[in-house]
Design goal:
The complex is a heterodimer of chains A (about 230) and B (about 200). The longest helix of chain A is centred in the first third of the chain and has 30 residues. The two termini of chain A are about 30 Å apart. Chain A is of the alpha/beta class. Helices cover about 50% and strands about 15% of the residues of chain A. The radius of gyration of chain B is 21 Å and the shape is globular. About 10% of the residues of chain B have low confidence. The chains are: A alpha/beta (about 230), B alpha/beta (about 200). Chains A and B meet through helix 1, helix 9, strand 5 and strand 7 of A and helix 1 and strand 10 of B.
Chain lengths: ~230, ~200
């Protein structure tokens, strides 16, 4: 009896002790995340987030000041276009494995999308709302576009600007999509949109192919944030 | 004693909750049929509403099934290449059959689109996603190439670039040529980005 109680208490208080082998196998390799190039991507990521935060603050100020302008669905005239960073396969790997130290890493939500993809565009307002809600609560969010490289200064930033998207944005430019798709998740066939939530250890804890259900994503993010 | 059973039940519940396999929450993944699967005959209506059986459409040496869309820009980027493939290999006994499984696109849409884009190969309407589900098709364009015996020998992308001038790997043509030459397909499964198939009921 006492033993049963002890075991059940241990499960409740320290679930991490009972994580299976799968988690260890898919954990982020520290050596890779320590590479200097990873720091560069990290830098880009942080700068993009800072810029994103500043942009969000501007948007909030504008919303407070003028409902009419906010409802126009655009950033202020003359504001810089969102920066979209080109990444290759190595860049994608570094993006997915951001920090060598799991105690500093945050859960990461990654949305793969393209301007040509209808459900991607449809779900964007939900993604922007989720980013706004969780940005200060410890969630990293990255957008990875599958658009043609010719769109990196055209259609992609134009759409992000219209959506008021402040998340760090990347465009995946690779000669062969397959290694990139498999790098994210071998079970993913390449259909867009695709949304993945990585926990602090870099393990996929949630994935969705097709348009997201925002409430479902919020619940999964809450779980990932609560697990620290 | 009753208390003991109640406690034991609680403990069992806690154990069951934690012992469940820890896998990513995922209710939307579609797994394609493995290479080597024999695709059984099926019947679907074409864009004209006539029921067609795979057995009546298949080629003597192979059959290319391509999940297509009238609206997906990626699928549309391949219209000319799909038509050219059909024309280039028809005489060599390879059939090309389109399948539209998008619940948001009607038979009328398919007919009008094929006429506008000059697609002369047969396009079937997979109204209830039965064939998309059976083959595990997730997006458009997505190819399932069957050899003469109906065995799946290639799955995935048509080539490696949406922009035709950037193509430097013709995955599907390589697979068809290999089968025609009686050789093994070297790369039998190639992934690429595409538009997710809009299934009935938003699945």
């Amino acid at each position: 009896m006492r033993l049963l109680l002890t075991v059940s208490l241990a499960f409740v208080l320290a679930p991490g002790l009972f994580v299976g082998e799968g988690a260890a196998a898919s954990a982020r390799p520290a050596s890779f995340a320590n590479a200097p190039a990873a720091a560069a991507v990290d830098g880009v990521y942080r700068r993009a987030r800072r810029k994103g935060a500043a942009r969000k603050a501007r948007v909030n100020r504008r919303r407070a000041g003028s409902t009419a302008r906010a409802s126009a669905g655009r950033f202020a005239k003359g504001a810089a276009s969102p920066k979209v960073t080109e990444i290759d396969l190595e860049g994608l790997k570094k993006l997915l494995r951001r920090d060598a130290d799991p105690s500093k890493a945050k859960p990461l939500l990654v949305n793969f999308w393209a301007t040509w993809c209808d459900p991607c565009r449809d779900e964007f307002p939900d993604l922007v709302r989720i980013d706004a809600e969780y940005r200060d609560r410890g969630l990293d969010f990255a957008l990875v576009s599958g658009d043609d490289i010719s769109e990196i200064k055209a259609g992609v930033p134009k759409f992000l600007r219209r959506m008021k998207a402040g998340m760090p944005a990347y465009l995946l430019n690779v000669p062969d999509m397959e290694p990139a798709i498999n790098e994210v998740d071998a079970a993913w066939g390449g259909d867009l949109p695709a949304t993945f939530l990585f926990d602090r250890e870099g393990k996929i804890v949630y994935k969705h192919f097709g348009r997201i259900d925002p409430q479902e994503v919020r619940a999964e993010i809450d779980k990932a944030l609560g697990g620290k | 004693m009753k208390k003991f059973y109640a406690l034991a039940a609680f403990v069992a519940l806690v154990l069951a909750a934690y012992a469940a396999p820890s896998r990513a929450a995922d209710n939307t993944a579609v797994t394609p049929a493995p290479i080597g699967t024999t695709v059984e005959d099926f019947k679907l209506a074409d864009a004209e509403g006539r029921e067609r059986a795979l057995s009546s459409l298949k080629g003597k040496t192979g059959t290319v099934l391509i999940f297509v869309s009238t609206r997906c820009p990626v699928s549309n980027a391949y219209n000319e290449r799909m038509e050219k493939l059909y024309e280039d290999y028809r005489a060599r006994g390879v059939a090309v059959v389109g399948i539209n499984a998008n619940s948001t696109e009607s038979a009328d849409d398919i007919r009008a689109h094929a006429k506008e884009k000059g697609l002369s190969f047969v396009i079937l309407k997979d109204k209830e996603n039965k064939i998309a589900d059976r083959l595990g098709a997730g997006h458009t364009p997505e190819v399932f190439f069957l050899d003469a015996s109906g065995k799946l020998v290639y799955h995935g992308a048509i080539d490696n670039a949406q922009n035709p001038v950037m193509v430097n790997a013709n995955h599907l043509r390589n697979a068809v040529d290999a089968v025609l030459a009686g050789k093994q397909v070297e790369r039998a499964d190639v992934k690429a980005f595409g538009c997710s198939i809009k299934r009935v009921g938003g699945r």
